[in-house]
Structure formats: C-alpha cells, structure tokens
Amino acid sequence: MDRFIIHGGHPLRGDIVIGGAKNSALKLLVAGLLTPEKLVLDNVPRIADIRTMRRLLEQHGLTVEDISGDGGTLSIGGEITNTEAPYNIVSKMRASILVLGPLLARCGEARVSLPGGCAIGTRPVDLHLKALETLGAKITLENGYIHAEAPNGLKGERVILPFASVGATENLLMAATLARGRTEIVNAAREPEIGDLVGCLNAMGARITGIGTGKLVIDGVEGLHGARYRVMPDRIECGTYACAAAITGGELRLVGGQVEHLGAVVRALEEAGVEMVQEEGAVRVQRTGALRGVDIMTEPYPGFPTDMQAQFMALLSVAEGASMVTETIFENRFMHVPELNRMGARINVHGSSAIIRGVHSLSGAPVMATDLRASFSLIIAGLAAHGETILSRVYHLDRGYEAVERKLAQCGAHIERVSD
Ligand code: EPZ
C-alpha cells in the first residue's frame, strides 16, 4: 500500500489545475446505460472510482473506450447484456447503486447488490427504492441483493423525497427520462452535480426542467440518443486546495475552478480570513491575515457541503480562537479527528458536533487515512505541521483525487509517495 511522506512548513504558491467533478462524472457514465448510442464525456477525472465504474458498465455489456488515450475523454456505448450489478463491485463503490434506475428503465429488470455501509455511515438506499416503487417498480430484497422489475415499463408520478438525497434524486431522475408520462421530483437535491446530470440527459434528448430548484419535472420520452458532454469542474477539489493554500499561508490559482458552486465555502473561508476570488479561468485563493475560528454546519446544497467538512476542520485546528463544526448529513464523519489530535490539534467531539480550540502549530506524525475526504484533511494538516507526517492507506485518497502529490509538489510542497 502507498504512503505519503510530507514535510510541513512550505507555503503553496503557483497554479493547480482543477479536474472534472468525481460526483458528476460517475453519474454521467451511468447515464450511458440509457442509450445504445455513443455518449462521449470530456474532462473525466483520472481516479480509481472512475476505473471501477468503467468495469461495472463493461460487465453490463457496454463498451467504454478511452478516446483521448489519457482517460480524460471516454466514449460509452453498446447494448446491455447483463442486468446484474455484483457485490464485489457495488461493495467497493456505493455509486454503483445508480445503475438500478437506468437498468429498470431500459430493460424492465435489475438485480443490484445492496451497497452496505461505509466508513462514514450506514448509507441506506431506502429512498432510492421507495422512489422507484412509486414509478411502478416491484422491488424485493433477498440474499443481499435488490431484485427490481418493471415488466410493463415505468410510469411517471409525483415523488416527494423526505430528504433531499443526492443519490435518490439521481436514480429517480435517470429512470424517469424513459418512463411513460410526467414525473415530478419534489424536494429534489440541488447540488450542482445534479444540474450537470440534467444537462447531459437533456443533451441526450431527455426533457427535464427545474435545474437548481427543489422541484424537477421530467417528461418521459421513447428513447435517448448519443451526445457529447463536458464534465463540470470539481468544486470539492477546488475547495480542498483552497484550504491547503490557506493553512500554509501561500497563494494558489486554481485553474478551471468556479466559486459559483462553492458559495457557503467561500463565505466560511472569508470569515476565517481567507480570500477566494473568481478570475478569468481560475480562482485565486490566499490568506488575508491571521486565521480566525469559524462555526460551520454541513447541510444539503446550497449549505456548507459535508464533503468539505474534514478539510475545513484541519484549517480550523490552527485558527485563533474556538470553532464548532456540526455534521448533519452523515452519522460518522469525524474519523479524521483522532488523527488530527495525534498531530497536536485540540478537538473534542460531542455527538454530531466537534469543538475545535485552535493551536499555534501542529506537529508531524504517522497518521492513517480512513476515507476519501479525511485523507485530504490529514494532508492539509501535514502541509502546515512542523516535521514529518507519514500518511498511510493513501488508496482512500486515490479513489477521488487525481495526482495529489504532483499537484502539491509543483507548488512547493515537500510531499512524496512511497510504495510498500
Ligand atoms: C453523494 O452521496 C456523494 N457521493 C457524497 O460524496 C456526498 O457526501 C453526498 O452525496 C451528500 O452531498 C457521490 O455523489 C458519489 P445522499 P449520496 O443520498 O448520494 C441518507 C464524497 O466524499 N440517505 O444525499 O449517498 C444517507 O445515509 C462522497 O465524494 C438515506 O437515509 O448522498 C446520508 O446520511 C461521500 N436513505 C444522507 O441521506 C437513502 O436512500 C445523504 O445521502 C439515501 C440517503
């Protein structure tokens, strides 16, 4: 397993290219199930989860071709020959559950392994299943698998989501594009990645309105056709590197980044003494003075994104004064806390809230990654810590961030990857 060795204390300066959004690209790949024609996606991030999703689609019978030669442009096409999503893939990547809606819509049946939980929570899929049942799917659970059938196709309905679940919105959205009649999704998730999926589906001939609102309206069509679509920039990668620039007292240009999708993060960073400004083709981020403690609470979009919570907490650990971080989306997303405390942070967890008392500096230590965003939280701390930090289990990071050590080293970080 790979490890990172980081020597802290070097301000980051220079340009970092922001890649395509992981949490959009994964769904756009799944949208390829909705048509036998070619869907070409540009700006696809080169990360492990994309490779896993390619394998999943290929075992469904699709062809996924790397037409740029570097993994950045993928062409998905072909007929579905297998409607089962196996446990060995689904258990590794929860986003696999999103093939359920498209398989039902295209083939009238699907057998998808229940994803099971992950490090940050139990991650149930009850909202996905209830939503698809509202469109007429017959769903049973047995032997750890979801058996879903819609022999007469799906029928458009009004679905009210009790929680603005991103995944449930996406599963339902894709299924509804081929349902008979109109589907309304009330209390739909409003994350920008949903807007990207709607844009791609409409480019494929779907008829969806309501992007960015809490109500999506989908008029089903007979079939979707191929298209070419560019994945939006990764707003979480952008916010993550902004925290790295801030904690090191450096200045970065995040090329391709867009602050428009990071409103709550920009406001929290400004309150903490960090400026994040949109320029032509890039976002400039730098500290404007001493870091100040800030209270944040994670919420569905447009609130503060849960995927930025761990990274922001690392920044707050060396801010002046106290901060409170409340995690309302996942039930176990504080696993970076004990690792940060081993580096000298002073963080106490009380239920879904963590109290952070800022310290003057952190000290390098051997630490362990537990999940994707926690991994980067420890890198951010290591970039500012005195001495050496060794981060193990870097495979968590490689699932969702591309070429981290290269991007950071190019801006002055002392970081290297070593393989056991
Ligand atoms: C997506 O997960 C993202 N993953 C997550 O990013 C992100 O944290 C999350 O949305 C919230 O923004 C991808 O896009 C691949 P949810 P998803 O359905 O769709 C509960 C990362 O780090 N829930 O909005 O699973 C659930 O347990 C990852 O990139 C149910 O109870 O998020 C959780 O507490 C982590 N029943 C909450 O809702 C359901 O049927 C949010 O889940 C579905 C969800």
Automatic annotation (TrEMBL):
In alphabetical order, the GO MF annotations are: UDP-N-acetylglucosamine 1-carboxyvinyltransferase activity
Q: Which Pfam families match?
A: EPSP_synthase
Q: Does the keyword Membrane apply?
A: no
Listed binding positions for phosphoenolpyruvate are K22, N23
GO CC field: cytoplasm
The answer to keyword Cell membrane applying to this record is: no
Question: What keywords are annotated for this sequence in UniProt?
Answer: Cell cycle, Cell division, Cell shape, Cell wall biogenesis/degradation, Cytoplasm, Peptidoglycan synthesis, Pyruvate, Transferase
Q: What is this enzyme's EC?
A: 2.5.1.7
Location of 2-(S-cysteinyl)pyruvic acid O-phosphothioketal modifications: C118
Its pathway is: Cell wall biogenesis; peptidoglycan biosynthesis
Q: Which domain of life is it from?
A: Bacteria
Q: Where in the cell is it found?
A: Cytoplasm
Set out the biological process GO terms recorded for this chain's protein: cell division; cell wall organization; peptidoglycan biosynthetic process; regulation of cell shape; UDP-N-acetylgalactosamine biosynthetic process
Q: Which reaction does it catalyse?
A: phosphoenolpyruvate + UDP-N-acetyl-alpha-D-glucosamine = UDP-N-acetyl-3-O-(1-carboxyvinyl)-alpha-D-glucosamine + phosphate
Where on this chain does UDP-N-acetyl-alpha-D-glucosamine bind? R94, R123, P124, V125, D126, L127, D307, I329
Q: What class of enzyme is it?
A: transferase
The active site of this protein is located at C118 (proton donor)
Residue ranges of domain Enolpyruvate transferase in the record: 7-408
Function as written in the Swiss-Prot or TrEMBL entry: Cell wall formation. Adds enolpyruvyl to UDP-N-acetylglucosamine.
Q: Which PANTHER family match?
A: UDP-N-ACETYLGLUCOSAMINE 1-CARBOXYVINYLTRANSFERASE (PTHR43783:SF1)
Q: Which family does it belong to?
A: Belongs to the EPSP synthase family. MurA subfamily.
Protein name (Swiss-Prot/TrEMBL): UDP-N-acetylglucosamine 1-carboxyvinyltransferase
The record lists the lineage as: Bacteria, Pseudomonadati, Pseudomonadota, Alphaproteobacteria, Acetobacterales
Q: Which gene encodes it?
A: murA
